[in-house]
Each structure stands twice: as C-alpha cells, then as structure tokens.
Amino acid sequence: MIQLIDTSIVNVAVPHIMGNLGANTSQASWVVTAYVFANVIIIPITGWLSEFFGRKKYYLISIGLFVIASVFCGQATNIWELVIFRFIQGLGGGGLLPTSRVILIENYPPEDLSLAMALFGMGVVIGPTIGPTLGGWLTTTYSWRWIFYVNVPVGIIAFMMAFINVEEVGAKLTKARSIDGWGLFFLFMGFGALEIILEQGERDNWFASNFIVWLTAISIIGILAFIVQELTTDNPVVDLYVLRHRNLAVGTFFGFIMGFGLYASVFVFPLFLENLLDYSALQTGLILIPSALTAALMMPVASFLMRKGASARLLAAIGFGLFFVFSWLMSHQSLQSGASDFYLPLVLRGMGLGCLSVPINTIAMWGLEGHELNEGSGFSSLSRSLGGSIGIALVSTFLDQRNALHWTRLVSNITRFDYTARSRINEIVHFFKSSGFSSSVAQSQAYQAIAGTVTKQAYMMTYNDIFLAVGVLFVICIPLLLLTTSADISNEDTEVQMQAE
User: For residues 118 and 33, is the Cβ–Cβ distance under 8 A?
Assistant: First the structure.
C-alpha cells in the first residue's frame, strides 16, 4: 500500500516543491515521472531478481531501498536531487508489489487464494485513493518533506516483520538464469521511453514536439527488439511464454483496464471538484474516503463468496457493472452538485473495485507455480501500472480536446440575435451598473461573466463525457470474461485442480 500511495501522494505537493526548491513546472513534473519510470522498468524483471537474490532477500532489499530513498527525498536541497532519489525510491517500490503478491500466494493454501488476493487488493485500491488526501494533509499541516518521511516508520516495521516472518524460498527455485543484458537494455529503452511519453506527452502537445516523436520511435524499436530478444534467447530476463496461460493473458488485460479506470477516476474526480466546484484538496480527499473504505470492506466479502463457490466470472461481471453505474451517475452531474450527490456513486465505485480486484487477481494467478508465479505476478503488476499511466495520459488529452469542442459549440449559440443570450447579458450589465460601474465597464464585466459561465459549462460537459467513456470501457469487458477457463474457484475445485496437477 505504501508503494502505491507514493504514486499519487506527490501530485498535490508539486506547487509547494516548486516554490521551496525553485523549480519550474516542467522540472517539477519529473518528480512524478521519475518514480513511475522506475516502477515500469523494474516490475517486469522482479521475477528474475527474486530468483537471483532469493525472494526474501530481494523483498528486504526493495523495502530497504524504498525507505532509505524516502529519507533522502525528504532531505533534497534541489529539484534534481529529488528527482534522482525519487527514481531510486521507484526502483525499490516497484519490486514490492509483485513480490508481495507472490509471498501471499505461497503462504496461503490453494483454497484460500481468494483471501490472499483480497488482502493484496486492499492495498492496490486504497493506496492510490488515499494518496492525494494524505499528501494534502501532510503538506498543509507540516511540509512537503513529510510526504516522504511518513514512509520511514511504516517501512521499518515492514522490514522487521518480513525479516522475522517471511521464509526464504530461493532454494526452492531453479538456479537463477544468467543475465540477459540485451533483454534488459531493450526493456529499459522501450518501456522507459513509453513511460516518459505518457507522462510528458500532454504537456509537450504530443507529436507536435520533436522530443516526443523521437521517444516514440525509440519506444517502438525498443519494445519490438525486446519481444524478439526474449522469444529467441535461452535465458530471457522476462519469460514471455508464460502468457500462453489464457487466464494470465486475460487477467493481465483486465488488470490493465482496472488500472485505467482506477487511476483515471482518481485523477479526474479531484479536478472536477477542485476546479469547478471550488473544493479544497482536503475536502476532496475526505469525499473519496467512503469509496476506499467500501472497497476495503467489499474485498473480504468477495473472498468469502469465492471460497463458498461463487463464480469468479460472475463477481468480476458485477464489479464491471457497478463501476459502469458509478461512471454513468457521475456523467449526469452538474455545477449545482454537492457532496451528497457523490456518496452513492463513490460507494458503488468502491463496491465495484472490491468485486473486481479479488477475482481478477485470482484468475490471473490461477494455476501458476514457481518460476511462472514470479513472471505472472510481474506481468499483472506491470499491466496495472501501464493502464494507470495510459489512463491518465488519455484523460488529460481528452480533457483539453473535448473541452475545446464543447466551448466552441456553446459559444456559437451566443449571438446578439439570440434573445435568451441578449437578455442574460443585459441583466448582468444592469447588475454591474447598479453596483456603481460605468456602462462600458459593466458591458466588459458582463462579457467576462458570460465567458466564465461558458468555460465552466464546457468543462462540466467534458467531465461528464470522460466518466461515461470510462464506464463504457468497463461494460465492454464483461463479455471478455468468457475467455477465462476457470469460472468457479471454490475449495472443491481447487483441490481437484491441485490433485490433477
């Protein structure tokens, strides 16, 4: 959970970091980009690193690196120091997510796999949701440096508990494969460039920037070369053949969609509340809490139902459906909406994520063991991370383009020949005149007021479009559940499956 909190906790503190370290917006954006960039390049090779060091050792190394880098982030004296330590923090944090999941799976009996996935899913969903709230509170109450220091006590406790309780399983694994240097190089080249494109593209106007064009070429060449290298070498750093398992392939895709929806909604909802309804960051965070709590409460329920024989497909379908209802309700909000209008949609969102996370994780990891378990966990975590990055990038671009379209359409209806528009402008002019302004100033103020109203309405319509588009994406996934090979993951089915293997 602390790893995922750090993907979003910094966002609300960026203005404070800029002022304190004397950085501009472009420089400060790398504080966010560096962490996600490190995550994306380390997650695919966590399986290999677990074999090379032993899973417990690698897990402890990841926790230690994350905590130490957090301390140095808090001590940074300039923006580039902070960027470097955020990158190192991301290298440590990136290893925590897939390794945590594998440790849970190996320490729970097969019939309790859904319970392990419920525990894992709580962190996955709660982390990104409470990150902005926690970041806003720490930054406002103390300083931006405390968004990094808060990791230290939690990390130390996690390190001690893992050291005492987690067993080393490296001896049970096959001997670690030799280093695939070209594979690593192409991985860093392809996915690293892709992540920078997703983080910087919207700011640089995408392909209008030569920098983005070159990065796109580098990313395509790197990813294609990586795939060819991993499919042809005897010792791949990432075993792509593990995707021959249909459940893992489909579950990885669903993880991508869930990451897309989770991060896109967490990204766009605060913008809606803070930019249009004038909520503070803390107020926005408090409104999001019921969603996180509902998701946390729903996951053990989903686990219990699956252990009693409920269909993983059915639960996932319900989750996709609930997330669509959340999106549909949010697509019908207005500038007059208040906090009470958001509770039901957000509770449904939490229930949907709770129903989705457990079956999707269970389906993806179903039937994997040993070396394949490591690789599968890495793929699943990478897909969610990429889904989140792509979701935020697409939503940011869609926000600008769709807003321009709505603004143009609304303005085209405001002319001197339109009776309603003319009457409204005259009312505003009379208001300013009665307040003591001259005719010319009152006229100018009236036009500014109308322009502000149109801008807000255009943004409101854009946010409605975004929520609806995300909801439709989730509905489309429901028929794809039929591609999975295991619908019921109950005690009896699990025991039969294990005996057959």
Answer: no
pLDDT digits (tens, 9 = 90+) for 186-200: 888 888 788 778 777
What are the backbone angles phi and psi of residue 488, rounded to the nearest 5°? -120, 115
How far apart CA 99 and CA 158 sit, in angstroms, is 13
Q: What is the pTM of this model?
A: 0.73
pLDDT tens-digit map of 470-493: 888 888 888 888 777 654 444 444
Decide: 188 and 238 in contact? Cβ < 8 Å. Answer: no
* Residue 341 amino acid letter: D
Residue with tokens 């319509």: 461
Coil, strand or helix at 289: helix
In degrees rounded to 5, what are phi and psi of residue 376?
-60, -40
DSSP letters spanning 159-206? HHHHHHHPPP-GGGSPPPPPP-HHHHHHHHHHHHHHHHHHHHTTTTTG
Determine how many CB atoms are found less than 10 A away from the CB of residue 84. Answer: 16
| Predicted pLDDT at 30 | 78
Half-sphere CA count of 258, side-chain side, radius 13 A: 33
Residue among 370, 203, 347 at smallest CA distance from 287: 347
What are the structure tokens assigned to 371, written together?
Answer: 């070396």
Torsion angle of the four alpha carbons 364, 370, 371, 376, in this order, in degrees rounded to the nearest 10: 10
Between 80-84, 258-262, 370-374, 463-467, the lowest mean confidence (pLDDT) is in 370-374
Compute φ and ψ for 205, nearest 5 degrees. 60, 35
Which of 83, 70, 85 is closest to 28 using CA atoms? 83
